[in-house]
Write a structure and sequence with these properties.
The chain has 19 helices and 29 strands. By secondary structure, the protein is of the alpha/beta class. The chain binds FE2/S2 (inorganic) cluster.
Length: 636
Amino acid sequence: MTEHLVVFQPSGNRGNIQEGKTIMEAARELGVGIQSICGGHQACGKCKIKIQDYHAYYESNKKGKKRISAPTEKEIELLGEDAIANGYRLACATQVLGDLTIDVPPETQVNQEVITKTATQKAVTIKPAVKKLYLEVPQPRLGASQGDWERVSEELKKRFGLADLSVDHGALATLPKALRDGNWKVTVTLFMEKKVIKVESGLAEAAFGVALDIGTTTLAGYLCDLTTGETVASEARSNPQISYGEDVISRITHTVHSKKGLKELRSCLFESLNKLLKDLSSGANITRKDIIDATIVGNTAMHHIFLNLDPRHLGSSPFTPVLQSPMDMNARDFGLEICPGANVHILPVEAGFVGADNVAVVIAEEPFKQDEMMLVIDVGTNGELVLGNREKLISASCATGPAFEGAHIKFGMRAARGAIESIKIDPKSYDVRFKVVGENRWNDQDPQVKATGICGSGIIDATAELLRAGIINPRGAFNKNISNPRMLYNEKETEFVIAWVDETDVGHDITVCQNDIRSMQLGKGALLTGANLLMRQMGVDSVDKVVLAGSFGLHIDKQNALDMGLFPYVDPEVVYSTGNAAGEGARLALLNTDKRQEAADIARRIEYIELSLEPDFQKEFVQALIFPTPQEVKSR
Ligand code: FES
């Protein structure tokens, strides 16, 4: 038995392979993953590899023997003569006849790691829940009485070693037509090597999945190519349930007070999600039916509403969810308009107020893989905190209120075009400069910059700058001894003008008022109390790293957040913003099923702390309402 040394690059896997075996067989023996959707039948072209130093190998060696087999007709048809002349071959067609070094291009590698292009997306190994397999099925004839499905499942067993597969009813219903339209050539989509969920005529390689983050305020979707890992389209829009109340409690209350409440909330949610899916699909030139897998994250209330589970017990002590475990459901059963047989994976929740969105943040940020003590702060309408490292993780939820999202602020708005996102106040003249979302220049650099309101990062800047200039004191009260046109002393309350009417697009001055500062104090007090109590529980008096998750964190000025005491003081260098980490966790779980398992394990490992039961909660909260004094800030 003659053997030859075969080396695969870039993995470096090598070994002796029996002469005559295909490169695909060699790869299997040496543990190198090579793409294939036709099971090695020279039909899909996915197993393309490159022979290093091709001509030297293909030409006869000194003894007149070639080191690889000649290209087959199918290879020439699928790859083209030019590619073959450049050393590209099909692994399933090319036989090993001598020593070889083979490059496996990234698109041919199974489980390749995708390094994403954006700062907030993490690298992930592609290991999706679905895979496509191409089959050429023997035609039926009189005397051979097998059904279409039996014919397909036999072929799946013969070619891919897949036994005991089930089939989705919808896929089964399309099978006869797909087989006959494709002249008995079909591509089946397989979920978790267990169930056929879709059948298409001929060779159909495109495989897309969607990760959805259902927030109380915002719905976000990421459409991903499941073969390359690339995010091909992303969309966000307001959660239409806002018309039933801004926070989770008002949504839960609606389901309690109205018999049709849950139905109404679900119906507007699904209408919006399906429109979002339509926009995502058209953005990528595919149809919704091409989406063959989905992952969902959301806080516990959104999670329950999505799953049609009564959320009422989340709203009162002891805040018990109906379900904590992850769940797999069929898209058709929900009315989610993607491939009807597609699986929808809902990530697990931790506790009453710490949902699947927080679990997603944790699997994206991975504090459980680090030695350093990490504090993850996810600020949305509610604040969720996770503290820990590889030894231990604890979490808590705190009622920050919607002020950080620009809500309940007199001229507050979401971070949309025209919202003031950065503010500077001259501590002597009290002159104000500001920058709005969608513009790179400050208003004093370009008089065309007009404001329409203030978003969360703007109100944080305003608070820090008002404190620095001594316009408000550490207890949050305006200094009424200041005489300046920007200080408006009304009957009801004091206000400070951030933008004069001619600097706005809304026909009136934009101000920060006493109530706005109070809302900020309540939000920051809740967040800081949560962080302090978690640190005490963990037995630490400082953290090594602070991660700000959520779009809120992307825009805030770290120094200003620290100067107003939003969270425990750390060096600004160790504060990181990650954008929508919940959406990122959903994307990772979509692309790699190991992340789904990781989410299930982590959700059970995180210890949830009910802050209101902590003996010093009230005392800590009152203390945390106070802003740091200018002396404290200076001495840091
Ligand atoms: S595996 Fe399909 S062509 Fe080689």
